[in-house]
């Protein structure tokens, strides 16, 4: 019985399926991370700048943007993924597969990224910012030439953490037709009661997380 399971796992068909799932997972994770940072980075900086202790405090903007970010962060990922299916169909023409999952991943992860960026920006030494203000630097100049460079190591660490979080989201998306290693674990492992296949996908996902984390730490240093 065990030999039959092992032969099935390491069959050419299964290995091809796992390879495809790996590529889909990397595609979803990396594309979503880049898109999430394209949205989350400016939003996070806006939150940091308009905070009461920020460079240019603005309570109304900070409260409005912060409320939207907190709302999206509070919605469980699977529920959000299902809720945005009409939008997903409108954008990519389908609600299943890797491309469709990216829409939900970006919507779910961009608020998370924004808070990570905001936290990194607030770690910058206030004295450096005040020195720039005293020399007449504009808000945009302070963001580009002071906050971003000073916060870069923390931002890179945050990017590594965000990418691993998004990777976890891709695995959950497999429950609703998202594709990738998560779909293989659920469809071929859990539903077929092939525990070995399920744990094989778990091990691969853990290894990918470790690689992302190590790359992020190396770049930050």
Kindly describe this structure:
This protein is mainly α. The chain is built from 10 helices and no strands. Helix 6 crosses helix 8 and helix 8 packs parallel to helix 9 (180-190). It is elongated, with a radius of gyration of 21 Å.
Strand content: under 5%
Percent helix range: over 70%
Q: Which consecutive residue ranges, at least 5 long each, have pLDDT under 50? A: none
Mean pLDDT rating: 85
* Terminal Cα span: 49 Å
What is the tally of helical segments?
Answer: 10
* Major sheet size, sense and barrel closure: none
Outline: elongated
Helix and strand content put the structural class at: mainly alpha
Number of strands: 0
Helix-strand string: HHHHHHHHHH
Radius of gyration: 21 Å
